[in-house]
Automatic annotation (TrEMBL):
Single GO molecular function: metal ion binding
GO biological process: isoprenoid biosynthetic process
PANTHER family found in the cross-reference section: GERANYLGERANYL PYROPHOSPHATE SYNTHASE, SHORT CHAIN ISOPRENYL DIPHOSPHATE SYNTHASE
Name of this protein: Geranylgeranyl diphosphate synthase type I
Length: 379
């Protein structure tokens, strides 16, 4: 990563907070940083090259929602950054995407997912490397172990990129407690997720299952997707306590809506757009809010049918369609859509309630637009 790459930056447009130019600028920062890490790995051993190659490919996709939250949270506090501030801000924002892809790698290992962003998931690629190089032992064990270490490396690199971004020490000191909270929260949320998936559905009180699913949404997704990135950006920009507090309310509401949309796409989405096989969440037995509400609302016969199919890794397309129909028939799909709209409205209301003395016009416009882009999407 060079100073020139960072300083170029995008033309930030509050009316288009996820513009292609912005996403490309984040990609440039990540590519430059990772190319520097390639040389670090090569100096250790040439056989580490796949770690760099996989990282380069994985960061090439994505919606850049977390970097956007950071940048527009900053703008909400301090206005559009000048040339000297833009590079360090982009570096800090891009570091959140490395944290994100680290979580994706580990998530795919835990879920046994075959695809990520239209490509074989990391552990599957390492399995293939094992076969291609004629290594001994179980390729699946090797693939999982390698992917865990690879995800750890991405987490380490996210911290390194943040600290090397060029931020003033005082600004970094303001943001670090929020970054640390974000790392803890998403890891705790992941654990709560696998814990929920490990509990037999038949032994759970259905109301408790809904509460557990909503708690996972808050900590595994809402805080680390929207709330903390926005607060981190605002803290970098020297935002007021009122702004930071508002962004907590805005971010959690919008983050919930974002994840609930993901839950619907994981069941009903077009795999050509989502990059994952249709119905994978059903095969993996993900205890989403959608599924929790479906089980709570289903009649006994339908509930048994959902339980019999849900979480079976060998579900064929016909069975996936059957399970979708059962879930839709409980009214859970419509209920989750209503929850998305309600959370979207809550996020916008929190934003609108903050007086103009506490937030810039550009920041308010960008965050309001981001709320719609993050919830009304097809992938």
């Amino acid at each position: 990563m060079t100073t020139s790459q960072l300083d170029a930056g995008p033309a930030l447009d509050p009316a288009d907070p996820l513009a292609a130019g912005f996403r490309d600028a984040v990609a440039d920062v990540l590519d430059g940083f990772l190319d520097g890490q390639r040389d670090v790995l090569a100096a250790i051993d040439p056989s580490l090259a796949p770690l760099h190659e996989q990282a380069r490919a994985l960061v090439a996709g994505g919606k850049r929602v977390r970097p956007a939250g950071c940048v527009w949270g900053y703008v909400a506090a301090a206005g559009l950054p000048g040339a000297d501030d833009r590079g360090p801000l982009l570096g800090a924002a891009a570091s959140l995407d490395l944290l994100h892809v680290s979580a994706l790698v580990h998530d795919d290992v835990m879920d046994g997912s075959d695809l990520r962003r239209g490509r074989p998931s990391a552990h599957r690629q390492f399995e293939q490397l094992h076969d291609d190089h004629g290594l001994i032992g179980d390729p699946e064990v090797f693939g999982r172990a390698a992917a865990i270490l690879y995800g750890d490396l991405l987490l380490i690199w996210s911290s390194e990129l943040l600290h090397r971004s060029g931020l003033p020490p005082a600004a970094l000191a303001r943001a670090l407690p929020l970054v640390e909270a974000m790392r803890t929260e998403v890891t705790a949320g992941q654990y709560l997720d696998i814990l929920a998936q490990s509990r037999p559905v038949t032994e759970q009180d259905l109301a408790t299952a809904i509460e557990a699913a909503e708690r996972v949404v808050e900590y595994k997704s809402a805080r680390y997707t929207i709330r903390r990135p926005c607060q981190i950006g605002a803290s970098l920009g020297g935002g007021s306590e009122s702004l930071i507090t508002m962004l907590a309310e805005y971010g959690s509401a919008l983050g919930r809506a974002f994840q609930l949309r993901d839950d619907l796409l994981g069941v009903y989405g077009d795999e050509q757009l989502t990059g994952k096989p249709a119905g994978d969440d059903l095969r993996e037995g993900k205890r989403t809010v959608l599924v929790a509400h479906a089980l709570a609302a289903a009649e006994p016969v339908a509930r048994k049918a959902i339980r019999d199919l849900f979480g079976r890794p060998d579900l064929d397309r016909e069975q996936v369609d059957r399970l979708r129909t059962l879930i839709t028939g409980t009214g859970a799909r419509d209920q989750v859509e209503s929850m998305i709209e309600s959370s979207h409205a809550d996020a916008r209301a929190a934003l609108a309630a903050l007086p103009g003395s506490e937030i810039t016009d550009e920041g308010r416009l960008a965050l309001d637009t981001l709320a719609t882009l993050a919830t009304h999407r097809t992938h």
